[in-house]
Amino acid sequence: MTNLRWQLEVADLARRLGWTVLENSTERQRPEDPSFVAVKGGELLAVWLRSSAPRAQRRPMTDRFPGVQGHMWTPADMAEARMVLTMGGLSGVGGGSDAA
């Protein structure tokens, strides 16, 4: 799966679940920038999406924005992405489950 297709799939899911999504342009995206930011009610998520890079090489700084939940997902993490987007970020503020 390409990174663009993966981003479209997750961003579309977020929108269907009631999130307002601000997507980053994939051709101009810096590796340290989130793929998209999503807002719903009082929750704010910064989401980094990676399509296939090895785990050790694809770790963004998910705790880069204090007070903002950061998550990094690959296609293998779709169940977690669906859970977070459905129930909200349950893993705490300032770094998702993949935070270093």
Structure characterization notes:
The chain has 100 residues and is an alpha+beta fold. It is 24% helix and 21% strand. The chain has a single domain (3-87), classed as Trna Endonuclease, Chain: A, domain 1 (3-Layer(aba) Sandwich). It has two helices and four strands. Residues 91-100 have low confidence and may be disordered.
Radius of gyration: 12 Å
The DSSP helix count reads 2
Largest sheet: 4 strands, mixed
The oligomeric state is: single chain
Instruction: Indicate the low-confidence ranges by residue numbers.
Output: 91-100
CATH topology: Trna Endonuclease, Chain: A, domain 1
Q: Number of domains in the coordinates?
A: 1
**Estimated structural class:** alpha+beta
| Straight-line N-to-C gap | 25 Å
Mean pLDDT figure: 80
| Architecture per CATH nomenclature, i.e. the level-2 architecture | 3-Layer(aba) Sandwich
Provide keyphrases for this structure.
single chain, 100 residues, alpha+beta, Trna Endonuclease, Chain: A, domain 1, four-stranded mixed beta sheet, 21% strand
Secondary structure: elements and pairs:
Layout: H1 3-16, E1 20-23, E2 36-40, E3 43-49, E4 69-73, H2 78-87
Parallel strand pairs: 3-4
Antiparallel strand pairs: 1-2, 2-3
